[in-house]
Write a structure and sequence with these properties.
The structure holds 2 protein chains of 2 kinds. Chain A is α/β, with parallel strands linked by helices. Helix content of chain A is 38%, strand content 23%. Chain B has 2 domains: 13-58; 68-278, MetI-like fold (Orthogonal Bundle). The chains are: A alpha/beta, B mainly alpha. The A-B interface holds A 57, 60-62, 79, 81, 83, 85, 87, 89, 91-94, 102-103, 105-107, 123-127, 129-130, 134-136, 142, 145, 175, 178-179, 182 and B 1-4, 7, 175, 177-178, 180-187, 191, 195-196, 199, 202, 280-283, 286. The complex binds adenosine-5'-triphosphate and magnesium ion (MG). Adenosine-5'-triphosphate is lined by residues 22, 26, 28, 46, 48-54, 196, 216 of chain A.
């Protein structure tokens, strides 16, 4: 996908004045507005409890906001998206291939009609040899790859990820970071990625939305203008360090303000 | 981008590389495997021998306590009668178990799909469960014409509840993230039930089934005792009762051992079924390397 400058990307999803107050009066989100544009890699970065998961659930249509509205200007239905949770969330009774087949199966497709897509998705995450394995035979990182393959198999335009790599070791996480960027490049989707790691958000995203807690809200947006594809060299570059400092500063000032 | 080199199976160490620790562990596992069968068998033989000695040394008359030799003689001598009786009891037990599965799992699914049905029926399922079947059975045999149907009903009442409650628990124990995922993909209620809830409930259901297997045998035996002998032919429990009236204690023991064997058989068969269905994916069937 050719790199479209941030300012020229058409919007796919717009959150306007979203508020979410849970029973008991916890304000998980207050006045959250965010335009997600086609091709963005957006990270939601913030301390625990600032409403990142809640925001993602609202985008996925799993939770209704108390106030505000969510718009899909490109006409995309809320249902056409892929989701990756913090846990791999695989069906233990189904093989790897059947797990990746799930989104198609729920749309009434037969396995044979989408076999190519399923195998291609598994190939992209490097697990084509494991299509007949059951989840319990895989390591944590491999399970997460299956989960990513499942989210991408239908080539959705928007993929939501909630701290997908938080439970993995650093080496695996770096590897999956690289793979995720390559995959995104390949299928040209938009990603909203929740993380509490400054380093991860800078490496992956071109827009970092910094949030603060009590009440959960967006305090600042940091743009990471380093070009893609980003490689391991980027991780050690001065550019990366500078962006990490900027994001970190934004996060700290957000937390002090809270 | 590909993980292939990282995932390539590691070179197996040569057979000679097995260290002393590993060898010790394997030897221990071998010993345990043999002991698993040998120890109970030795225990059984010792018990039979002691039983025999007690009878002989104390000169206990056989109408009070027969020795194992007499029980064995009864088992082989009365085999035709006992085998027919076992067939009858076994048939009632299995039919009751089948009905318990259909009724228990069916009700669980129905309750899961309709809260209203659950609210109206669940209390009665509990009442049926907590009322001792011995106290309901006499009534059942007054109103139910067919003895077979009466016995089935008794056995079913005892056996269906564990299937119902464990399947209900299973249907509600779906991983909440998977549930969300199904919602995101717009799964229908039917798809959710079939592809998500039923597989999630399977291990729970099988646990309930194992309990129900034993209970349906108990139900069948109780029903026979209440229904009494005569009529269509007698099952094992009725034979025990009948032999008791005639002070044929040896036959009582023989019939009792057959009931026990039947119970063990049902349990073993259901355990095997459970293992076969779960071994590929469920944690309970996972063989640890050490
Ligand atoms: N279902 C719920 N009912 C009541 N309160 C909730 C519920 N879900 C979340 N909250 C509250 O909303 C706030 C935001 O929660 P959320 O899970 O969105 O945080 P988060 O930013 O994802 O945190 P973390 O980084 O720990 O995952 C928290 O204070 C939490 O207690
Ligand atoms: Mg969260």
């Amino acid at each position: 996908m050719p790199l479209v400058p941030l300012s020229e990307r058409p919007p796919v999803m717009e959150l306007a004045g979203i508020n979410k107050t849970f029973a008991g009066g916890v304000v998980a989100l207050d006045e959250m507005s965010l335009a997600v544009n086609a091709g963005d890699f957006i990270s939601l970065l913030g301390p625990s409890g600032c409403g990142k998961s809640t925001a993602l659930r609202i985008m996925a249509g799993l939770t209704q906001p108390t106030a505000g509205k969510i718009d899909w200007p490109s006409g995309q239905k809320a249902g056409d998206l892929g989701v990756v949770f913090q846990e791999p969330t695989l069906m233990p009774w189904a093989t790897v291939a059947d797990n990746v087949f799930l989104p198609f199966r729920l749309r009434g497709k037969t396995y044979n009609s989408v076999k190519d897509e399923v195998l291609e998705a598994l190939r992209l995450v490097g697990l084509e040899k494991f299509q007949k394995s059951y989840p319990r035979e895989l390591s944590g990182g491999m399970k997460m790859r299956v989960s990513i393959a499942r989210a991408m198999v239908t080539s959705p335009r928007l993929i939501l990820m909630d701290e997908p790599f938080a439970a993995l070791d650093e080496i695996t996480r770096f590897k999956l970071n690289n793979d995720l960027l390559a995959l995104k490049e390949k299928i040209g989707c938009t990603v909203v990625f929740v993380t509490h790691s400054v380093f991860e958000s800078v490496f992956l995203s071109d827009r970092i939305v910094v949030m603060a807690a009590r009440p959960g809200r967006v305090v600042r947006e940091v743009t990471v203008d380093a070009p893609y594809p980003r490689t391991e060299e980027f991780r050690t570059s001065a550019d990366y360090a500078a962006h990490c400092r900027a994001a970190s500063d934004a996060l700290h000032s957000a937390m002090e303000a809270a | 981008m590909s993980l292939t080199d990282q995932l390539a199976p590691e070179k197996m160490p040569g057979a000679g590389a097995v260290d002393a620790d590993e060898a010790r562990r394997q030897a221990r596992m071998r010993r345990e495997r043999i002991a698993r069968w040998v120890l109970p068998a030795v225990m059984l033989l010792a018990t039979l021998w002691l039983w025999d000695r007690i009878v002989v040394w104390n000169e206990i008359p056989h109408y009070i306590l027969p020795g194992p030799d007499r029980v064995w003689a009864s088992l082989t001598g009365d085999w035709d009668i006992l085998f027919d009786a076992a067939l009858l009891t076994g048939r009632i037990t299995l039919m009751a178990l089948a009905l318990a599965v259909i009724g228990g799992a069916g009700l669980a699914i129905l309750f899961n799909q309709s809260k209203m049905v659950e609210l109206s029926l669940y209390p009665y399922a509990v009442i049926l469960q907590v009322t001792p079947v011995v106290s309901i059975a006499p009534l059942i045999f007054i109103y139910v014409e067919s003895k077979t149907a009466g016995m089935l009903l008794c056995a079913w009442i005892v056996a269906f509840f564990p299937v119902l409650s464990s399947t209900t628990l299973g249907l509600n124990s779906v991983d909440h993230n998977l549930r969300d995922l199904f919602r995101i993909y717009g799964a229908s209620r039917w798809q959710k039930l079939w592809m998500l809830q039923l597989p999630s409930a399977l291990p729970y259901f099988l646990g309930g089934l194992k309990i129900a297997g034993g209970l349906s045998l108990i139900g069948a035996v109780v029903a026979e005792l209440v229904a009494g002998t005569g009529g269509v032919g007698a099952g094992l429990a009725a034979r025990i009762q009948e032999a008791g009236y005639r002070l044929n204690i040896a036959r009582m023991f023989a019939a009792l051992s057959m009931i026990a064997a039947m119970g063990v058989f049902i349990f073993a068969a259901l355990s095997l079924l459970s293992h076969l269905l779960l071994r590929k994916w469920h944690e309970s069937a996972l063989k640890r390397e050490n």
